Amino acid sequence: MAEIMSSDQFMQQVRGRESLEQFAAIYIPIVKKEFNASLLRHEMESRMGAHCDWKQMTQTVQRLQTPFVARMLALEAASSTPDGQEKSRNIPK
Asked: Which pTM was predicted?
């Protein structure tokens, strides 16, 4: 998402006729406010507290901490690297 949003093409489409400086003066404060990590975390924790069964959440987290899930996550992360993408292209179908 960050790569797309920082591309020249995206910026031209979003900002329209405004100069980059004019656009940045408006856009950057909005993004900083709306994507504030501590605010998002607090909101997520509040919603989870209000709508989730903590016993079920604890069981789910325990299941996600198995070696199998850790290996799956490692493989997924490796597949997003340039080397991993090249290897996945060469897998016979």
From this structure: 0.36
Query: How many structural domains compose the chain?
Result: 2
- Are 42 and 78 within one domain? no
Q: What is the pLDDT of residues 30-89, one digit of tens each?
A: 888 888 888 888 998 898 888 888 898 889 888 889 999 889 888 888 888 888 777 777
Domain that holds residue 3: 1-52
Helix (H, G, I), strand (E, B) or coil at 81: coil
Query: Is 32 in contact with 19 (CB distance < 8 Å)?
Result: no
State the first-to-last Cα distance of the chain, in angstroms, to the nearest integer. Answer: 29
Q: Is 91 helix (H, G, I), strand (E, B) or coil?
A: coil
